[in-house]
Amino acid sequence: MKLQRKNMLRASALGALVVSGALVLTACGSDDNTKDGGAASGKPSAAAAGDIKCDDAKGKLLASGSSAQKNAVDLWVKNYMAACSGVEVNYKSSSSGEGIVAFNQGTVGFAGSDSALKPDAVEESKKVCTGGQGINLPMVGGPIALGFNVAGVDKLNLDATTIANIFNDKIKKWDDEAIKKLNPGVTLPSTAIQAFHRSEDSGTTENLGKYLKAAAPEAWTYEAAKKWPAPGGQGATGSAGVASQVKAVDGAIGYFELSYASSQSIKTVDVNTGASAPVKASSESASKAIAAAKIAGTGSDLALKLDYTTKAEGAYPIVLVTYEVVCDKGNKPETLATVKSFLNYTASDAGQKVLSENGYAPIPAEINTKVREVIKSLS
To answer: Which pLDDT tens digit goes with each residue over 59-94?
Structure first.
């Protein structure tokens, strides 16, 4: 998969480089969630080469983790590699848990995680971050869509309690009275509910759990965790695996990032939050919820606290923020310049614009300004 340096130095091979970058990511990533084989094979974003500062970036940068941000990272990498000749960025889409393990083993320059580092993971990171520790840089926001496939049903409203009872196996049929009450005038079949969840440790699972625990504590009695906690349901690997099952199975429901639903034309649930109308999952509605986030981390750590119980008009409450996990100090000298250069681009106005163009939600400007300051300070 490694690109030959001589090809990268030829100005006439720029188009081939973009395609090669897409192939690298498609081959190494576990989630392919676009109709044509991955976001990296789509049209380039509006970012121009002038928006990307390569600085002293060089060689190969390995990263891994969250599948939630795969579409965004694919596009970022394509733009970045096209602008920075001689640099290869390889992001392996797996899961947040696997990304953090790889980071703390020192095998990647940064990891993507849909939840902030836990104290034990921070302590573990000190072994690879010489004189420092792992920190969380919020980079990608977005809604966790609840995709459904119920024959004859095109629109579906659910509230937190009903969602919890579907996923904890207490509501078993689509014509259950609780669902009918939320969908007056809709003919619901007696089809059995087939609920799909992530089979591996997942930050998306943890964020869904945070929402259910906060918004429906009596129905959802489990602590939020990367590992799926509830009985029943069926597991699938990665967001792509869950989306594929929902797409294929009548009566199915599952959770994944909105880009997976959009690319596969999967219908999504509108969430009844107590606002005047149920809220549809979108980049805009997620941005309204994320805008209320507060920085919970200290120092250079920018972990956020989200409000999962918001009733603000038009605010979609089931959101996640994906963090890029890096060392504040003690980054590997051979990849430090590339890490800083690449993350400077992803946090730039052009990099964040890629998010809003592809179903994600940009990080609020006030927080993103702090992200840029921290990136400059990495050593």
So the answer is: 999 999 998 899 899 999 999 999 999 999 999 998
Tell me the CATH number at 73: 3.40.190.10
For residue 330, tell me if it sits in a domain.
Answer: yes
Instruction: Give, in order, the Cα–Cα distances in Å from 264 to each of 148, 149, 154, 243.
Output: 12, 12, 15, 8
Which domain, by its residues, includes 36? 5-141+323-377
Whether residue 299 is contained in a domain is answered as no
For tokens 């107590």, name the residue.
274
Is 11 exposed, middle or buried (CB count within 10 Å of its CB: 0-12, 13-18, 19+)? exposed
Indicate if 53 and 181 belong to the same structural domain: no
The tokens for 39 are: 């976001």
Instruction: Name the percent of the chain lying above pLDDT 70.
Output: 87
Note the pLDDT tens digit of each residue in 277-318: 999 999 999 999 998 899 999 999 999 999 999 999 999 999
Q: Between the CA of residue 180 and those of 148, 186, 280, what are the distances in Å?
A: 16, 8, 19
Q: Are residues 128 and 161 in the same domain?
A: no
Are 218 and 119 contained in the same domain? no
- Dihedrals φ, ψ of 229, to 5°? -100, -20
300, part of any domain: no
Please list, in sequence order, all residues whose beta carbon lies within 8 angstroms of the beta carbon of residue 228, skipping any fewer than 6 positions away. 197, 198, 199, 202, 205, 235
**pLDDT of res. 349:** 94
Q: What is the pTM of this model?
A: 0.77
Mean pLDDT of 322-350: 97
Give residue for tokens 């052009």. 350
Reported in sequence order, the residue ranges of the chain that DSSP labels E, i.e. its strands, are 59-65, 87-93, 110-113, 134-149, 157-159, 194-198, 234-236, 252-257, 267-268, 270-272, 294-295, 304-305, 319-327
**Which of these three, 238, 270, 290, is where a domain ends?**
290
User: Is residue 297 domain-resident?
Assistant: no
Claim to verify: residue 151 and residue 224 sit in the same structural domain: yes
